[in-house]
Amino acid sequence: MNLLDYVKVLRTRWITVCVTMLVAVVAAVMYTLTTIPQYQASTQLYVSASSGSSITDLYQGNRLSQERVLSYTQLIMGETLAQRTIDRLNLDMNAASLKARVTAAAKPNTVLIDVSVRDTSPTRARDIANGLSDEFVQMVSELEASPVTGASPNARVIVEQRASVPAKPVTPKKLRNLLAGFAAGAFLGVGLALLRDQLDNTVKDRETLEKITGTGLVGSIPLDKDLHKKPAISFEGNSSSVAESFRKLRTNLQFLAVDNPPRVIVVTSASPGEGKSTTAINIALALAEAEHSVVLVDADMRRPSVDKYLDLVGAVGFSTALSGGASLRDVLQKTAFTNLTAITSGATPPNPSELLGSQAARNLLSQLREQFDYVIVDSSPLLAVTDGAILAANSDGALIMARYGQTKREQLAHAIGNLRDVGATVLGTVFTMTSTRGANSYSYNYGYYGSDRRDSVTKSPTVMDRVRSQAHDPPDSPDASRDNTQVAEPLDDPKQVTRTSDGERPGR
Ligand SMILES: Nc1ncnc2c1ncn2[C@@H]1O[C@H](COP(=O)(O)OP(=O)(O)OP(=O)(O)O)[C@@H](O)[C@H]1O
Ligand SMILES: [Mg+2]
Question: The AAA domain covers which part of the protein (predicted)?
Answer without folding.
Answer: 263-402
